[in-house]
Amino acid sequence: MKSGESIIPARTEDLIRQSAKICSPVYSMFLDEKQCSEAEGILLNYPYVVYKFWGGYNDAQRKILCVYSLSGCGYLDELYSEGLTEEIPMKCLTFLYRKSDTLTHRDFLGSLMALRLKRETIGDILISEGKAQVFATDTASELICSTVGKIGRTGVKIYDDMPFDTVRIQEFETISGTVASLRADSVISLALRISREKSAQLIKNTGIQINCETVFSVKHEMKCKDVFSVKGYGKFILDEFSGISKKGRLHIAVKKYK
Question: Which of 26, 6, 33 is nearest to 211 (CA)?
């Protein structure tokens, strides 16, 4: 495999082969949004494969892929197809702590990664007042429940049998300004607060993700509501175009995911 080439297509095809061999559903680890898109691109080439992505709730960002290949396995009835997600090997872990303590997504992820868990074993992490809910594979859940008593310096109690009821509230930092055009190098320059020259070099060298597609062209024309991410800088959305200045520059607002 070439350097930088995604392993998701190969892993997806492996899942299809495994399912056909054992005539049973098989499951991936947690995939991010880009990986889900890559996997679905492969799955669409296999009309005899039933599949579902599930992260524990409808708007999950990180999901496990369930694959059931019908090749040589007979008919999969509709009822069973609808129930594929019920057997996905994941748990919703509920962390309770004092409401006076403030914990962040980074605090939880850092503590869990300190257990030497792979990132792909952890799904979404949702935070509310005095409570967090974390989706994790069954194996990771066992380790977390048996070893974690604190997140950072805050004591926590962990339950694996409480229903999921945390509402995701996405927070943003708004970055406003003017750009010469909606070309990728101009928008990235504003979003990252770097020069247009540095922005262009960054795009050419490492690429950026726009709506789950990798872009290396500085001339790529962006549109309102495009979601983009830059490695090492975070995730953004081109939120608003609000007019043209007297000098012909475009007023835009970019929101950075916190």
Answer: 33
Q: Which residues contact 82 (CB under 8 A, 6 or more apart)?
A: none
Write the CB contacts of 68 (distance below 8 Å, at least 6 apart in sequence).
19, 24, 25, 26, 49, 50, 51, 76, 81, 84
One-character DSSP codes across the chain: --TT--SHHHHHHHHHHHHHHHTS-EEEEEE-HHHHHHHHHHHTT-TTEEEEEE-SSTT-SSEEEEEEE-TTT----HHHHHTGGGG-SEEEEEEE--TTS---HHHHHHHHHTTT--GGGEEEEEEETTEEEEEEEHHHHHHHHHH--EETTEE-EEESSSPP-PPP---EEEEEEEES-SBHHHHHHHHHT--HHHHHHHHHHH-EEETTEEE--TTPBP-TT-EEEETTTEEEEEEEEEEE-TTSPEEEEEEEE-
Cβ–Cβ under 8 Å, residues 236 and 170: no
Other beta carbons less than 10 A from residue 130's beta carbon:
14
Residues written for the chain: 258
pLDDT (average), residues 91-119: 95
Q: What is the pLDDT of residue 1?
A: 46
43 phi and psi, to 5 degrees?
A: -60, -30
Ramachandran angles phi, psi of 48, nearest 5°: -90, 10
Query: Which pLDDT band holds residue 111 (cuts at 50, 70, 90)?
Result: very high
pLDDT band at residue 72 using 50, 70 and 90 as cut-offs: low
Spatial CA neighbour of 183 closest among 211, 223, 221 = 221
